[in-house]
Design a protein that fits this description.
Shape: globular
Helix content: 40-55%
Distance between the termini: 28 Å
Oligomer: single chain
Strand order of the largest sheet: 1-8-7-4-5-6
CATH topology: Rossmann fold
Number of domains: 1
Largest sheet: 6 strands, parallel
Order of helices and strands: EEEEHEHEHHEHEHH
CATH superfamily: HUPs
Length: 208
């Protein structure tokens, strides 16, 4: 298991053949383009990862909102020649059942997304996986780490728990400069309701 603060510099994953660096494959679960622009610089700092972005977010409701975020991500990755694998299915009923039947809908949502990320990573030969959700100062990092650790169990790909929150403000600045689509709620229809009714979502970070 690997855990890093924001200012991490990883060299342990670097392999050499002669003088050639062999990069380890990392699958990056991406919730949206604005979060990606904050996370990539940290992951690319030493150039030790061969990164592929992975979009699997059935929690984003309604359908038009889901497509807006995906289309923005596709355009950004295409312009910058970033590898992207996207699950474009929209299993609304299944996702709603998962969320509504859970004791904590946000924990179930994190678990579903990172489980699918880990599964794809294993099936396609990735050494590591992580998520851009870790950049948000509003998400509960404890629940995110728990979801990642659960997803990695019994699998070869290792979950990298990296605290990207110091890059959050920078991600806002860059995304605004690039005129990227910025959403106003986390994703599910319940979080959209919570925004208007000032209800605390169960996946928010603890308040002290």
């Amino acid at each position: 298991m690997q855990t890093y603060g924001h200012a991490f510099f990883r060299t342990g994953n670097t392999k050499f053949i002669g003088n050639n660096i062999i990069k380890e494959k990392l699958l990056l679960h991406v919730c949206c383009a604005p979060c990606l622009v904050g996370v990539l610089p940290s992951l690319n700092r030493n150039g030790n990862f061969d990164i592929t972005c992975f979009f699997y977010n059935p929690n984003i409701h309604p359908y038009k909102e889901n497509r807006k975020r995906l289309d923005c991500l596709k355009e950004y990755c295409s312009k910058r020649k970033i590898d992207l694998e996207a699950d474009e299915s929209y299993p609304l009923e299944q996702n709603l059942r998962t969320l509504l039947n859970a004791d904590n809908r946000c924990e179930a949502c994190f678990g579903d997304r990172l489980e699918q990320t880990a599964l794809y990573a294993e099936d396609n030969g990735y050494a590591y996986f992580t998520t851009t959700l870790l950049i948000s100062p509003y998400q509960n990092q404890i629940l995110l780490e728990k979801a990642g650790r659960t997803a990695e169990k019994g699998r070869i790909p290792e979950f990298l728990f990296i605290d990207f929150r110091n890059s959050y403000r920078e991600s806002i600045r860059i995304s605004r400069e690039l005129n990227l689509y910025r959403q106003s709620y986390c994703g599910c229809i319940m979080s959209e309701r919570d925004r208007y009714l000032n209800i605390r979502s169960p996946g928010e970070r603890p308040r002290f």
